[in-house]
Each structure stands twice: as structure tokens, then as C-alpha cells.
Specification:
2 domains; seven-stranded mixed sheet; binds cobalamin; 19 helices; Rossmann fold; globular; TIM Barrel; six-stranded parallel sheet; binds iron/sulfur cluster; 15 strands; 15% strand; alpha/beta
Length: 469
């Protein structure tokens, strides 16, 4: 069967690459249209003439995908299959007139089972995790299946099709996700919803074997070249034994610079030593808020200031750079509390920071509480990339917080500016503030991902429409 994935993000979407690998292994033909323009997408898909068009969507980009799906359905009459985190948490997407099937949860086996069934001319009614439409109206849906415990049994992500684009092939960093699940319960994250979905369906936190991960990175490096290995897993450090083993093999065979996501409380002496010896370039971890009560009582992060401070000093001693994730515009946050977040980053000497406005994703614990209390501008929760610019929370000081977020990194680096910024944030939001934000944010991104200036500009040009939608 001819299957075509359509997407508009110029990033390595491992979900799509993973499914392409599964489908090709099962003997299906796959293609990947990477474009955001409706007419161009229609033309490219028509030229391929697929039997099935697939989208992999997160909440926010689903609006773009559904618009394209409607156009393809109307003009080409093609079958539409949508999966990814958005349909996992919002299976009602199947009610959209353009959509034929949605996948809830992990789709490695479900995707193949659906395509196999369709190629036999059957309705994939029996496939776990799949929802579809009843012929006479209404919808049907199946419970998710068991989680795949042996991640090594899945084929490596198929990068071949994506790397036909020079821009993607030449990327200095190449992305990998080698684990699934996370044991924590942050209130702003979807992880609890995912854990509930899979209750009784197998082990939630799983890792590939370190050997297989190093084999894959080595293979990708030999074939396409890597300057920086970007491990995008939620938390690579939760499995200590795994990290030590991985670092030992990686140091021996590759020793390429790499980035990981971690928690500050995992970054003790042996962990820092192992990562430093293996050549880690940067460890990213969540500070989220500089106010301990906000971080732990509201965000449920289970992490105190002292641990963050000690871990940061340790990483500096071991020569590991670190990037912090921070949110401004949190529920009940005052300007002084937000300034504490900036102050904590300054104090720990954060090498790089990411600083967005808190985006309340519908279906997460915190967002649902805000919706119930009527504290969101609309009930849909966050649905676009606007966490860079505006907040959907109702709060008297929100304009000031939105302005402060634009100056976050500048204030971490140049504390002397604080008295001026305190005055500036009282002004209405304006383009000059937005320019400060993009300038500083791009500087961080460039450094973290080892991007050249031309590449950064090119990435910005390809993404700009989605950032401002
Ligand atoms: C790497 C990553 C990124 C990368 C790459 C994004 C991407 N879409 O792949 C970057 C940095 C660009 C990114 C950005 C964002 N991310 Co992000 N990201 C992740 C992360 C950590 C890993 C994703 C991954 O590659 N997983 C491995 C692959 C194999 O899994 P997968 O993509 O989910 O695909 C599986 C299934 O979903 C399913 N599936 C996927 N697509 C399809 C399609 C079909 C047809 C079928 C049948 C099945 C199917 O099958 C796949 C194999 O099992 C996840 C958390 C996580 N652990 O999954 C968050 C996560 C996806 N991100 C999230 C968010 C919120 C964002 C941002 C909105 C953040 C922001 N505010 O900017 C943006 C949105 C960008 C976008 N439009 O996709 C949320 C999404 C929640 C939601 N409701 O949609 C997640 C789930 C984190 C969380 N727990 O809250 N992200
Ligand atoms: S540690 Fe990260 S992935 Fe885990 S619950 Fe918290 S935010 Fe979500």
C-alpha cells in the first residue's frame, strides 16, 4: 500500500520516522511531504497518489493538519489517518469530517495493522488503539493495546526519506529518542494522562539497550555525519545503570558531543562523572520556577532550590554546560516571583535558558483546574505556539509578566538592567520587546544545538509562520 506522511515542521519527527520504518518493514511504500502550504501540499500529494495520507500531530499543530486533511479529502478523496500526542489525548478528533481513523497511544504496531487491513480492503475495526467512523454516523473506538516492552525489537527510525531534504541531512545535530515514559507527575505535563491510559497495559518506563543506541548513533554518524547527538527523551537520567553502561560504551566507540534532558536531583557526582567522561556537551533540566512553593505545590516538580544549586555547581566543576527550562506567567505568579526565577538562573550560572510563558494544555491536571476555576481566556487551553508571546491566563499582572518573559535571558546575563526592565514592563507589549525576545532566544537555540547563523536564519524562515499563528 502507498502511504504518505504530511508534515510542516523542519525538525526530525521521530514518531513519523519510526512508523515509516515499521511500515517499510511490513512491505508498504512510504513517502513524506514536508511543506506547510495547502496548495503545494495538495499538488505534491496528488503526484504521489497515495492510498492513505497520515498526519502525526501535537496539540496546537492539529488545526493546521485538519485543514490540510480537509483539503486533501475534498480534492483527492484520499483516506486520512491521524495519530500522535494530540489524538492520544483527544480521540474525538475522529469526529472531524475529514478524518477516517485516529490512533490513540503508541502506534508502532497499530499503524501497520491498520495499513495491512486497508490493503486487504478491510475496515481495521479490530485494531487496538484505533478509532473510526460508523457507516451510518457516529464513531467506534478500541482500547489501547499493551505497551511494547522490548524497544530493541522495533526497527531504527527511517531517516532516509527525511534526509533527502538537504536542510535536514546537513543538520549539525541529529535527534534520537531511546526511551519511553517518565515516572514523575508534573502538573503541567501530559505524562499522568498517558500513564492512566496505559494502566494495567505493561511497564510504563522503558529503555532501549545501550548497545543498540550506540550502534544506531554510530550508523547515523557514518552515513550522514553528526556534530551533536541530541537525545530528546523526557529524562535520560532516571535509569542510572543504563546511563553508566551507555556512557562507558559511548565513550569507547563515539565520544561525540551530546545533549540530554535530566532532572537536577539525578545530577550527583557519579552521574556527572559518567556524562563528562562520555563527552556530554549540555544537560537540560527544568527549574520551571524560582519560587519553591510554585515549583512544588503548583507544578508538583518535587525539587528544591538547594538540589538545583548543588547540581549546577557540580556540573560546572565537571565542565558540563547546562540549559534550564523556565516558565513565566504561572497561575498566581507575581512579578516578584517571576524575578526570582531569573535570579535563581543567575545564581546557578545557567549557561543557557529556555523561557516560555506557561501554556495550559487542556487535559493536564493544572490546566483542567484553571478551566474549572474560569481562569483561562478560553476553555480550549493552549493550542498554538504562542507560549513565546502571549498567555491565555486571566490575571491582572499578565501583561507585565508577558513583557518580563521577553527580557528573561537579558536579565540573567546583565542583572544591572533590572531597574530599567522593571519600568519597561509596565508599558504595553510591543514589537521592540518581541525583538529582544527572539534575539536572545535564538542566541540560546543556536548555541544549544550548535547551529551556524545561516542555518539558524533558515530554520527561522521555515518555522516563522507557525510561531506566529
Ligand atoms: C522530541 C519532542 C519534541 C521535539 C520534536 C517534536 C515532535 N513532534 O516529534 C520538539 C523540540 C520540536 C518538540 C516541540 C514541541 N513539543 Co514536544 N516532545 C518531544 C518528546 C520529548 C519526544 C517525542 C518523540 O519523538 N517521541 C518518540 C516517538 C516515537 O513518539 P511519538 O512522536 O509520540 O510517536 C508515537 C505515537 O504518538 C504514535 N504516532 C505518532 N504519530 C502518528 C501518526 C499516525 C498516523 C499513527 C498511526 C500513530 C502516530 O506512534 C508513534 C510510535 O509509537 C515528547 C514527549 C514524549 N516522550 O513523547 C514531547 C511532546 C510530544 N511535546 C509536547 C509539546 C507540548 C511540544 C510543543 C507544543 C512545545 C512548545 N510549546 O513549543 C512543541 C510542538 C511541536 C510540534 N508541533 O510537534 C507534548 C505534546 C502534548 C500534546 N498534547 O500534543 C509532549 C507529548 C510532551 C508532554 N508529555 O507533554 N517536541
Ligand atoms: S519530568 Fe518532564 S516528562 Fe516527566 S512529568 Fe515532569 S515534565 Fe513531564
Amino acid at each position: 500500500m502507498k502511504v504518505c506522511f504530511v508534515d510542516h515542521l523542519w525538525v526530525e519527527k521521530l514518531g513519523i520516522m519510526q512508523l515509516i520504518a515499521m511500515l517499510r518493514r511490513a512491505g508498504h511504500q512510504c513517502s513524506y511531504v514536508l511543506d506547510d502550504d495547502l496548495v503545494r501540499v495538495r499538488r505534491k500529494v496528488a503526484a504521489i497518489a497515495p492510498d492513505l495520507v497520515c498526519f502525526s500531530v501535537t496539540t496546537g499543530m492539529h488545526t493546521w493538519a485538519l485543514e490540510i486533511a480537509a483539503d486533501l479529502k475534498q480534492h483527492l478523496g484520499v483516506t486520512i489517518f491521524v495519530g500522535g500526542p494530540h489524538t492520544t489525548y483527544f480521540p474525538k478528533t475522529v469526529e472531524n469530517p475529514a478524518v477516517d481513523y485516529v490512533c490513540v497511544g503508541e502506534g508502532d504496531h497499530a499503524c501497520v495493522a491498520v495499513v495491512d487491513a486497508l490493503s486487504r480492503g478491510e475496515v481495521p475495526r479490530h485494531v487496538a488503539g484505533i478509532h473510526g467512523k460508523e457507516p451510518g454516523g457516529g464513531t467506534w473506538g478500541n482500547e489501547v493495546g499493551r505497551l511494547e516492552e522490548k524497544l530493541d525489537s522495533l526497527p531504527w527510525a527511517d531517516r532516509e526519506i527525511l534526509y533527502r531534504h538537504d536542510f535536514m541531512r546537513r543538520s549539525p545535530f541529529k535527534s534520537f529518542v531511546v526511551s519511553r515514559g517518565c515516572p514523575y507527575h508534573c502538573s503541567f505535563c501530559y505524562i499522568d494522562a498517558e500513564r492512566d491510559l496505559y494502566k494495567g497495559k505493561g511497564k510504563f518506563v522503558r529503555f532501549r539497550s545501550p548497545e543498540s543506541v550506540v550502534d544506531e548513533v554510530e550508523w547515523v554518524h557514518k552515513k550522514w555525519g553528526i556534530k551533536l547527538v541530541s537525545f530528546e527523551d523526557d529524562l535520560l537520567t532516571i535509569n542510572r545503570k543504563w546511563v553508566y553502561k551507555f556512557c562507558e560504551i559511548y565513550a569507547r566507540r563515539l565520544r561525540l558531543p551530546f545533549n540530554i534532558n535530566a532532572r537536577a536531583d539525578d545530577m550527583d557526582e557519579p552521574m556527572c562523572e559518567a556524562l563528562a567522561d562520555a563527552g556530554a556537551w549540555c544537560v537540560a533540566f527544568g527549574v520551571e520556577s524560582g519560587d519553591e512553593e510554585m515549583r512544588n505545590k503548583v507544578l508538583n516538580k518535587e525539587l528544591d532550590d538547594a538540589t538545583i544549586i548543588a547540581a549546577s555547581a557540580r556540573m560546572h566543576r565537571h565542565g558540563i554546560k547546562f540549559l534550564t527550562y523556565n516558565m513565566i506567567g504561572l497561575p498566581g505568579e507575581s512579578v516578584e516571583m517571576a524575578l526570582k526565577t531569573i535570579e535563581l538562573n543567575r545564581r546557578i550560572g545557567a549557561d543557557m535558558c529556555r523561557y516560555t510563558l506557561y501554556e495550559p494544555y487542556a487535559g493536564t491536571k493544572l490546566s483542567d483546574e484553571l478551566i474549572a476555576r474560569g481562569e483561562l481566556v478560553d476553555d480550549a487551553g493552549a493550542s498554538s505556539f504562542n507560549q513565546y508571546l502571549t498567555s491565555p491566563l486571566r490575571a491582572d499582572n499578565m501583561r507585565e509578566l508577558e513583557n518580563l518573559q521577553k527580557f528573561f535571558y537579558l536579565l540573567v546575563r546583565v542583572p544591572q538592567l533590572e531597574p530599567i526592565v522593571r519600568q519597561l514592563i509596565k508599558l504595553p507589549p510591543n514589537r521592540a520587546f518581541t525583538a529582544v525576545f527572539w534575539g536572545t532566544y535564538a542566541t540560546v537555540l543556536r548555541r544549544y544545538l550548535m547551529l551556524s547563523y545561516p542555518r539558524l536564519l533558515s530554520l527561522g524562515a521555515r518555522s516563522v509562520r507557525h510561531w506566529f499563528q
